[in-house]
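Work Package 4 report. The design task specified in the project plan requires that, given a folded chain encoded as structure tokens, an amino acid be chosen for each position. We show below one input record used in the internal validation round.
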């Protein structure tokens, strides 16, 4: 299904979203590296030294280490492991406002053989259609060439959205590693706090990330209603594709036996004006098609968003794991209203 996601918008921005949103995540290195790439590409840098790129990469991990673990729990890593070094050097690096020499050295040594080898990899032994960097040079002075495709997306109309999506995905993944909250997210998925429009874990109601930032990339950064891009200056809303008011009304009249409409599968970022104009009408066929595509894309991402959608499918008797179930699921919901 990652092929379908790319086919709907076959461009470098979609390749980037595939890498960030749908790749496997044993640790969070990919997000720190992606943020560093976007930072330099936004400056229209065609090349940077590996030492330069390692600075925001290392500091991004240090910042996130203060909030949550950056790898799942397991046997202690060796002393030379980069994440172990980052944990030891985090306090000193934070005080300096830059990586310590030891942390920078560890980052430079580990990046080429770890995150830089894997960033373009997707599940199923495939890779993104576009490349975003190339590493050249000797061990003494290695150069990272930032491709025109990377520089274009880092400076394009959706650049702010790409950074927000990466940050949201980083928050989700690191939360799934955290003791106490991680198991809840993996087993039970996420809930929505409508007061703050934040995704939370279902047990502790701890905030994980914003609803809009978590979902936007799976919609290619577009309003589900009008399909135009959502840009930083736009006023946005989170639309109930199937209106929640109808669920309440039907529940009062005859008892509602359908799926919960107040959860992720039925929520879509939209322009505020589009959401207001839509009001309480049922979704149009083309909107249902886009919602099905969006939800199928989420099903290709690692936990916990995928788990949330699987539970929604299972709540009405669908298997929840195999691809291609969302069109039929949405038709069933539509029929319940008619």
């Amino acid at each position: 299904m990652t092929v379908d996601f790319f086919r709907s918008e076959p461009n470098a921005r979609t390749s980037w979203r595939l890498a960030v949103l749908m790749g496997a995540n044993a640790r969070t290195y990919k997000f720190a590296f992606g943020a560093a790439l976007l930072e330099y590409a936004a400056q229209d840098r065609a090349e940077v030294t590996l030492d330069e790129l390692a600075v925001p990469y290392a500091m991004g991990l240090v910042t996130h280490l203060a909030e949550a673990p950056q790898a799942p729990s397991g046997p202690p890593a060796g002393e030379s492991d980069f994440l172990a070094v980052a944990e030891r050097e985090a306090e000193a690096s934070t005080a300096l406002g830059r990586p310590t020499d030891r942390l920078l050295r560890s980052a430079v040594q580990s990046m080429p053989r770890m995150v830089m080898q894997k960033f373009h990899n997707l599940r199923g032994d495939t890779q993104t259609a576009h490349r975003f960097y190339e590493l050249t040079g000797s061990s003494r002075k290695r150069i990272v060439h930032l491709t025109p495709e990377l520089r274009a997306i880092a400076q394009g109309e959706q650049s702010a959205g790409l950074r927000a999506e990466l940050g949201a995905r980083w928050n989700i993944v690191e939360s799934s590693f955290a003791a106490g909250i991680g198991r809840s997210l993996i087993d039970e998925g996420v809930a929505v706090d409508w007061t703050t429009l934040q995704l939370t874990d279902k047990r502790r109601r701890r905030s994980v990330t914003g609803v809009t930032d978590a979902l936007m990339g799976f919609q290619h950064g577009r309003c589900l209603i009008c399909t135009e891009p959502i840009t930083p200056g736009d006023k946005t809303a989170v639309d109930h594709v199937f209106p929640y008011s109808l669920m309440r009304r039907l529940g009062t009249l005859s008892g509602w036996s359908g799926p919960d409409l107040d959860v992720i599968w039925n929520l879509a970022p939209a322009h505020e004006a589009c959401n207001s104009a839509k009001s309480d009408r049922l979704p149009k066929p083309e909107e249902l098609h886009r919602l099905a595509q969006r939800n199928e894309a989420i099903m290709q991402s690692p936990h916990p968003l995928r788990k949330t959608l699987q539970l929604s499918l299972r709540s009405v008797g669908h298997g929840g794991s195999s691809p291609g179930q969302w069109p039929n699921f949405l038709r069933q919901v539509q029929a319940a209203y008619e």
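The two ends are 30 Å apart (CA to CA). Validation will be extended to a larger panel in the next phase.
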